[in-house]
Amino acid sequence: MNKICSSAAEALKGALRDNMVIAAGGFGLCGIPEHCITAIRESGVKGLTVISNNAGVDGFGLGVLLESGQVKKMISSYVGENKFFAELYLSGKLEVEFTPQGTLAERLRAGGAGIPAFYTRTTAGTDLAKGKETRVFDGKPYVMELGLKADLAVVKAWKGDKEGNLIYRKTARNFNPLCAAAAPITVAEVEELVETGALDASFIHTPGIFVQRIFQGDRFDKRIEQRTLRKRG
Amino acid sequence: MNKICSSAAEALKGALRDNMVIAAGGFGLCGIPEHCITAIRESGVKGLTVISNNAGVDGFGLGVLLESGQVKKMISSYVGENKFFAELYLSGKLEVEFTPQGTLAERLRAGGAGIPAFYTRTTAGTDLAKGKETRVFDGKPYVMELGLKADLAVVKAWKGDKEGNLIYRKTARNFNPLCAAAAPITVAEVEELVETGALDASFIHTPGIFVQRIFQGDRFDKRIEQRTLRKRG
Amino acid sequence: MAWTRDQMVARAALELQDGFYVNLGIGIPTLVSNHIPPSMDVTLQSENGMLGVGPFPFEGEEDPDLINAGKQTVTALPRTSYFDSATSFAMIRGGHIDLAILGGMQVAENGDLANWLVPGKMVKGPGGAMDLVVGVKRVVVVMEQMMKEESKLVRRCTLPLTGQGCVHRLITDLGVIDIGNGGFMLKELAEGVTVEQMKKSTAADLKIGL
Amino acid sequence: MAWTRDQMVARAALELQDGFYVNLGIGIPTLVSNHIPPSMDVTLQSENGMLGVGPFPFEGEEDPDLINAGKQTVTALPRTSYFDSATSFAMIRGGHIDLAILGGMQVAENGDLANWLVPGKMVKGPGGAMDLVVGVKRVVVVMEQMMKEESKLVRRCTLPLTGQGCVHRLITDLGVIDIGNGGFMLKELAEGVTVEQMKKSTAADLKIGL
Predict the structure, then answer these.
(1) CA of B224 to nearest chain D CA: how many angstroms apart?
(2) Is residue B194 included in any domain, yes or no?
(3) What is the pLDDT confidence band of residue B81, given thresholds at 50, 70 and 90?
(4) What does the mean pLDDT of chain D come to?
(5) How many angstroms separate the CA of residue A86 from the nearest CA in chain B?
(6) Residues in A touching C135 (Cβ below 8 Å)
(7) Which of A89, A105, A169 is closest, CB to CB, to D89?
(8) Strand, helix or coil at B213?
(9) What single-letter DSSP state applies at residue A209?
(10) Do A201 and C18 touch (CB under 8 A)?
(11) d(CA B221, CA B219)
C-alpha cells in the first residue's frame, strides 16, 4: 500500500467532488494545510462545506476558497480575522454554523471515534443551543451535540513517514489530529517525509491508520498572523 | 506549588478514605502503579471502589487489595487472570461492574473532559445494556454511557518532571493518561524524576495540570504476565 | 476428518488483504499472525495501545512495557506507534480497522456472537470484544464447530451476547460459513468433511453455497 | 477618575494565586500576564493547545508554529507542554483550570455574560469563550464599565449570551463587583470613584459590600 504522493494535486486526485464536506486542520494560520488549500482552489471543486476552527485571512489560508466562491458553508468557531468572510456572511452569501471551539474539537473527535453524540454544558441557555436537545445531569443543563465527520480531511504535520505516522510541531498541532481521524480519506502534507522507523513510536501524534495519502510540501509559507514582540533589555 | 513527594505513602497522605473511588492505570500488569497499590494496602483503607481495566493477578497488582478485603467493587473490563477474583465474585463477596474496554476508556476520558454522557454502539442488544438508555442514530441502536470520575487516581509513568508532566513507555501507557485526568487528585509514580524542561514539550503524554503529586519509585518489579518467546534461528 | 488448529488459522489468514489494519483476538486468532504472507502489507492493532505489532521476542529481549492485548510479550516494528486506550478504541469504534478475527463460544444464524460469559461458571469479562464487534468493518470468528457434543452454531445464542448481528464469516475446524440475510451459508468444507457432516454439526439451517 | 487599562489589568492580576492554572482571554485579559509577581507560580493555558505560555518573543525569535489563542507569537517555558484542541478543551470543560479572565460586552446581575456577537453587525464567533465560562472553576470578567453612554452592567443581557450565570467577579475601570445570589455587589472602588458614580454607571441594582 503506497500512501506517498508527489504533490497536493496528486494526493487529492479522485478525492474531490462538488458539495462534499472537508475538514481542515489549523488554528488561525498556524498549522494549516496550505498546499492542499491551493490544490483545492485550483481543482475548481465547489459547493464545499468546510469544517475548520477559523476561515483563514483575506488572501491566505481558507480565505482563498471563500474568495473563489467555492465554499457554501463553514462550520467554525471564530472568524474574526477575515473581513471578506464577514461581508459574505452578513450579506447571506455564506452559510455559517458557529460551533464553540471546544465543542467543535469534541465533535470532530467523536466523529472519528464512533461516538454519534455527547453532552456538554457549553452553549446551555444560549442561542446556539436552540433546536438542540438539552438534558439535566447532576442538576445542571447539558446540550446534546452530534459527532462530526467529513468526506475528506486535509491536515498539515511537521514530519511524517511512509506509513502515514505524523508528528506536529508546537501549537501547530491544534485541530490536525482530530480532523485526520474524522474522515475516511485523509491527506497529510508534511514539511519532511522521513523513513519509516525514524519517528519514535512512543511519540507519534497521529498513527498512520488515520492517514491515507501523504506528501512533502515543497515550500511552506507559514505566515504569522499577529507578530507580537517584546523589547530587548 | 511543590508536587514532589518522597514516597507513595507521602504522596497518598490525606488522600485516602474509606469507601472512596480510586482509578488505577495499567493493562494487566503492564504500567500499573505498583508502589501506590502497596501503599494503599498498607494504609488499611477499605470499602474501595476501584476503576481499573484488570484486577491484577493473585498476589500482585490490584490482586493484593482484593486479598486484603479492601475492595468493595471493581469497575473493569477483563479479570480472566485472577482466580481469587473469580471466587470472590461468584460467591457474591465482590461487586463487579463489567464495562467493555473501549467503553471504560471512553467513560474515563469523558469524566476527565467534562462530558457527562455519550452514546456508543458497544453493548447494544446485550445484557450489559440492560437498564441503560438506548437511542437510534442513523438507524442503529446506541447505548448511553456515563462519564466516570474518581476521587483519586494512581498512575505509573516512565519519566516525569517537577511540574507533573509525564511520558509513558511503549504499551505501558494504556489507561494511565485517562485515569490521570479523571480525578481531582492524581498521584503519579515514575521510574525517573527529571528536571523541568528535560522532556520535549511536543511529546508530553500527560500535561502537569492533571498531576497533583509525583514521586520516583525506588524499584519497580514490572512483572511479565505471559512471557511468550520465539525461537532463534 | 477436519482441519487442525493450524489449518484453521492458515485458512483465517486468507481473510487478510494487502493494506489491511487488523485486530486479532486473544488465543487462537493471535496465531493468524504466523501466516501472514511476507509480501503482504498487513498492520496488526492491539487494543491495549499499539499499531504495528511485531513477532514474539527472542529470549532475553522481552520487555514488560511491551505486550499485546493477551498480555503476551511482543516486539515493535519500524512502523509501530503506541497510544492510550481511548485512542485505541477510537480506532476500533470509529471504523478505522478493516478486519477483526475473534474467538467464539456461540454464533447464531442472525450473526449474534457470544464469547465472554458463562453465567455462574466463567467470569472473565468482555475485554475489548464488545467494541471490536460493533466497530470493525468486518468480523470473522474462528472456533471449533463443536463444544463437546453440542454445536456452537445455533439458531439463537443461549449464552449472553457479545454483540448483535455482528459476525460476517465463521471459520471452524469443519469449514467456512458465511452469515447473510438468510442465515448460515456453507462456503467451504475442510478436507474430508462432507456436507452431511457439516449439517449434523450445525444446530440451525444451513444453506449450501459451495 | 477611574482606573486606566493598565490599572484594571493590574487589579485583575490580584485574582491569581500560587499554583493556579489560568486561561487569559484575547485582548485586555492577555495583558494580565505582564503583572504576575515573579515569586508566584502561575501556569497559563492557551486553548489552541499549550500549557505554560511564555512571554512574547524578541524580534527574530518569533515562530509561526508557536502562537497563543489570540494568534500572537509567544514563547515556551521549561514547563511547557503542547497538545491537540480536544485535549485542550478536556482541560477546560473538565474543570481542571482554576481561573479564566475574559473580556465582556454585557454582564447581567444573574451572572450571564455576552461577549461574542452583535447581531447584524459584528461577526466573530464564540471561539473558546463558551467552553471556558462553563468549565473553568472561577470566571472573572475585565471590561470598561460603560460602552459609549450605556452601562455594560445590566439586569438582563440584550446581546446573545456566551454563558448563563457564569461570571463570579467583574473588574471594570470603576471598581470590582461580585455577582452572588442577590445580584451585583460592589467590593472595591477605583481611586477617585464614588459609590454614587458607580451606581449611576450600573443599569441594575447594586448592593454595597465595600
Answers:
(1) 32
(2) yes
(3) confident
(4) 96
(5) 32
(6) 114
(7) A105
(8) strand
(9) G
(10) no
(11) 7
Number of separate domains in chain A: 1
In which domain, by residue range, is B86 found?
Answer: 8-115+147-216
Instruction: Output the domain CATH number for residue A23.
Output: 3.40.1080.10
* Location of C-alpha cell 442465515: C183
What is the spatial distance between Cα C113 and Cα C131, in angstroms, rounded to a whole number?
A: 13
Nearest to A224 among D73, D86, D123 (CB): D73
Residue B84 placed within a domain: yes
Contact C95 A181 (CB under 8 A): no
* Amino acid B82: pLDDT: 83
Tell me, what amino acid is at D200? K
What string of H, E and C letters represents the secondary structure of chain D?
CCCCHHHHHHHHHCCCCCCCEEEECCCHHHHHHHHCCCCCCCEEEECCCEEEECCCCECCCCCCCCECCCCEECCEEEEEEECCHHHHHHHHHCCCCCEEEECCCEEECCCCEECCEECCCEECCCCCHHHHHHHCCEEEEECCCEECCEECEECCCCCCCCECCCCCEEECCCEEEEEECCEEEEEEECCCCCHHHHHHCCECCEEECC
Cβ B170–A115 below 8 Å, yes or no?
no
* Domain extent listing, chain D: 5-208
| Residue B196 to residue D93, Cβ atoms within 8 A | no
* DSSP H helices in chain C: 5-13, 85-93, 129-135, 195-200
**Domain contains A228:** no
Spatial separation of the C-alpha atoms in residues C162 and C115, rounded to whole Å: 6
Q: Beta-carbon neighbour count of residue C18 at 10 Å?
A: 10
Which residues of chain C make contact with A208, given a CB cutoff of 8 A?
A: 43, 51, 79, 81
Its pTM stands at 0.98
Say whether residue C54 is in contact with chain B using an 8 A CB cutoff: no
**Among B61, B80, B96, which residue's Cα sits nearest to residue B220?**
B61
d(CA C103, CA C115): 7
* pLDDT per position as a tens digit, A77-101: 998 878 888 889 888 999 999 999 9
- How many helical (H) and strand (E) elements, i.e. helices and strands, does chain C have? 4, 17
String of DSSP letters for A140-204: EEEEEEE----SEEEEEEEEEETT--EE--GGG-TTHHHHHHTSSEEEEEEEEEE-TTSS-GGG-
How far is B217 from B192, CA to CA, in rounded Å?
8
Query: How many contacts does B have with D, using Cβ atoms within 8 A?
Result: 62
C43 and A209 in contact by Cβ < 8 A? yes
Q: Determine the pLDDT at residue C183.
A: 95
Q: Is C144 an 8 Å CB contact of chain B?
A: no
ipTM: 0.97
Q: Is B106 on the interface with C (CB under 8 A)?
A: yes
Question: How far, CA to CA in Å, does D71 sit from each of A27, A228, D47, D66, D143?
Answer: 8, 9, 11, 9, 21
Give the separation between CA B111 and CA B152, rounded to whole angstroms. Answer: 13
Q: Do D81 and B208 lie within an 8 Å CB cutoff?
A: yes
* B170 is a domain residue: yes
In angstroms, the CA B184 to CA D98 distance is: 12
Does the annotation mark C188 as catalytic? Answer: no
The beta-carbon neighbor of C81 closest among A113, A114, A165 is A165
CA B126/CA B211 separation, integer angstroms: 37
Do chains C and D touch by CB distance (3+ pairs < 8 Å)? no
Chain D partners (3+ C-beta pairs within 8 A): A, B
**Could you give phi then psi for residue A36, rounded to 5 degrees?**
-65, -40
Which pLDDT value is given to residue D123? 76
Chains C and A touch (3+ CB pairs under 8 A): yes
Q: What is the pLDDT of residues C146-191, one digit of tens each?
A: 998 999 999 999 999 999 999 999 999 999 999 988 899 999 999 9
Instruction: Output Rg (C-alpha) for chain D, integer angstroms.
Output: 17
Sign of CA dihedral A83, A88, A90, A91: positive
CATH classification code of D5-208: 3.40.1080.10
